[in-house]
TrEMBL record:
This is peptide-methionine (R)-S-oxide reductase. Its EC number is 1.8.4.12. One of its GO terms (molecular function) is peptide-methionine (R)-S-oxide reductase activity. Residues 1-103 form the MsrB domain.
Length: 107
C-alpha cells in the first residue's frame, strides 16, 4: 500500500461499539473510527471528546506524543501523523489498554 494513500473501506474495521479503558471503563474510541495499518496495534483516527490526554514525551532521543486515559491516567499508546486518515493523525493503541464494549440492542 502507498503510504500517503487514504484509508479504504477494506482497512476500516467493521466492528460496532466503543473501545473503553480497561482500568476505569472510560469510553475512549468509537469502533467505527478504527482501521488496520498492519502494525498489530489497534489504530484509530479520532478519539471520543477529551477522554484521551495528549502528553509530549521526549525519551530515548525521540519526541513523541504519549496518550493517556483522561480519567485514570493509564498509558494507552502514542499519537502519530498519518496523511491517510481524515484527521491526519493515527492513535496507535496498546491492545491491553482498551476493550470493545458492544452496543446493546434496545428492546
Amino acid at each position: 500500500m502507498v503510504r500517503n494513500q487514504k484509508i479504504n473501506s477494506a482497512e476500516r474495521q467493521q466492528e460496532q461499539g466503543v473501545y473503553s479503558c480497561t482500568c476505569c471503563g472510560e469510553a475512549l474510541f468509537e469502533a467505527s473510527k478504527k482501521f488496520d495499518v498492519g502494525s498489530g496495534f489497534p489504530s484509530f483516527w479520532a478519539q471520543i471528546g477529551a477522554n484521551v490526554q495528549h502528553k509530549p514525551l521526549d525519551t530515548y532521543g525521540r519526541e513523541r506524543i504519549q496518550l493517556l486515559c483522561h480519567q485514570c491516567g493509564q498509558h494507552l499508546g502514542h499519537l502519530f501523523d498519518d496523511a491517510r486518515t481524515p484527521s491526519l493523525v493515527r492513535y496507535c493503541i496498546n491492545r491491553e489498554a482498551v476493550a470493545l464494549e458492544k452496543e446493546r440492542e434496545e428492546k
